[in-house]
C-alpha cells in the first residue's frame, strides 16, 4: 500500500471522509473550528456541504486527503490559525505572535485504520503548511497516556502520534476532550 497525501480540492473525496450519510444531517463537516461559531450554527443540512464545496473550489483547500491509489482513505484539517476559531479560543493559548498554522482534525476511514494513515496525514499536513509558507504548525491533541480513546473523539489526534512526527509540547491548555486534556504541540518549519 502506497499512501499519497494531497490538498483536499476534490469535494466528493472530502464528502467521503467528513460528510454525513444523509445530506440533510447537521454534522460537523470539519467546520466547527474553521468558521465563526455564529456561522457554524446557522449552516444547516445541505448548506454545510455547500460551504465545504466552495472551499474546495475557491481555495485554499480545507485540508489534505490521504489516498490509497484513487481511493480517499484519510482526512486532516489544516489552515492558518488566523482563519480558524483557534485564533480566538480562550482555552488554547497563543505561544507567540508567529502566523502559525493549525492542524486540528485527523480522520481515517473504517477499514483503513491501523495502517499508518494518520502518520501519513500528519506528515502531509506539515508539508502542505510548509509549502504555503507557514513558519510553524500547531496541533491540539489529546494527552491520553496509555488510556483508550473513543474513536469518535480521537479526531484531535494523540500526543504520541505528533511526537513521532517531531512535534514538541509547547503549552498546556484548559481544553478537555473525551475526558482527556488537550495540549498544544508545535513543529517549527523554518
UniProtKB/TrEMBL annotation:
This is GNAT family N-acetyltransferase. Residues 3-190 form the N-acetyltransferase domain.
Amino acid at each position: 500500500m502506497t499512501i499519497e497525501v494531497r490538498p483536499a480540492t476534490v469535494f466528493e473525496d472530502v464528502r467521503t471522509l467528513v460528510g454525513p450519510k444523509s445530506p440533510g444531517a447537521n454534522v460537523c463537516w470539519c467546520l466547527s473550528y474553521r468558521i465563526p461559531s455564529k456561522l457554524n450554527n446557522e449552516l444547516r443540512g445541505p448548506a454545510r456541504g455547500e460551504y465545504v464545496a466552495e472551499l474546495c473550489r475557491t481555495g485554499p483547500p480545507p485540508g489534505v486527503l490521504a489516498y490509497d491509489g484513487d481511493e480517499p482513505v484519510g482526512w486532516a484539517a489544516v489552515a492558518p490559525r488566523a482563519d480558524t476559531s483557534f485564533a480566538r479560543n480562550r482555552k488554547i493559548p497563543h505561544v507567540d505572535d508567529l502566523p502559525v498554522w493549525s492542524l486540528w482534525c485527523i480522520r481515517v476511514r473504517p477499514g483503513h485504520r491501523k495502517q499508518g494513515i494518520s502518520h501519513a496525514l500528519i506528515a502531509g499536513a506539515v508539508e502542505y503548511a510548509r509549502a504555503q509558507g507557514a513558519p510553524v504548525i500547531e496541533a491540539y491533541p489529546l494527552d491520553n497516556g496509555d488510556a483508550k480513546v473513543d474513536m469518535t473523539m480521537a479526531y484531535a489526534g494523540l500526543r504520541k502520534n505528533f511526537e513521532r512526527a517531531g512535534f514538541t509540547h509547547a503549552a498546556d491548555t484548559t481544553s478537555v476532550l473525551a475526558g482527556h486534556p488537550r495540549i498544544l504541540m508545535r513543529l517549527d518549519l523554518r
